[in-house]
Amino acid sequence: MSGAEAPWSRLNFEIESRLDAVPLLGQVAYLLCIAAGFAPVEGSQLEVCVVEAVNNSILHAYQGDPAHRVELEAQLLSGELIFDVWDSGTSADPAQMNADHRGALEVHSGQVKDIPHTGRGLAIIQEVMDSSEYTPGTERNRFRMIKRRDLCQLPNERPKRTRQLDHKK
Amino acid sequence: MKLAERKIGANIVLEVLESRLGADKAVAFKEAVGSYLNDGVVSVVLDLSKVNFIDSSGLGAILSIFKRMPKGSELILCGATDPVTSMFKLTRLDRVFTMKKTVDEAVSALSL
Predict the structure, then answer these.
(1) Whole-structure pTM value
(2) ipTM for this model
């Protein structure tokens, strides 16, 4: 982690709710992570988290309808990087969204047919981020992801943690 | 979906000529690789050396292809870049797939 402070504190980006527009937002998120001092591989993992959250908004909140907007707000604070993904589509169940999904990442190589090929998005976010929270709203839904900047180890190199959503305090 | 193919007997090496395997490309990717399985290809080496981004949809697409492989055939991945390797490790799918550094290593690892 470099000690340099990035020259921004809050940035907003907006795309149409089309899957082919998501890579651009992901690449922006990656560049912000690098500017915030994260290592390239960690920046890539954070990019995946943003992409997963935006995909969820497009596919679930908007059911794939491209006639809407998804907004990404990035805030760089002294100790953390915050990504908020906003949509104005159908709200998801916050209890389901905020439940611990990391069990979806457990695999046993001898049971390939039993390994689901979907349902890893939230698990990846929870594994990479220090905390995440979905908040439905009457006008807009927010999915907030927070990554602390003093943690420079990659998630798969960290000691095994207990399963609670905000688990790195 | 851009793929470059090189047949080796009944097997095939498919190089993914896309830099990103995300939700917008996952369906086309599955169909493109699946078409080779429908054509009677036995085993597949999937060269990921040009892919520098993969999300859960891309991983799911590769897993879906793996499940579709005919009995006795193999799917070997190779050339994974650091970001892609990182996601396979993060999701523990590196324990499911055979992953080699180079195409040559992957071809040598095919048992058919």
Answers:
(1) 0.89
(2) 0.93
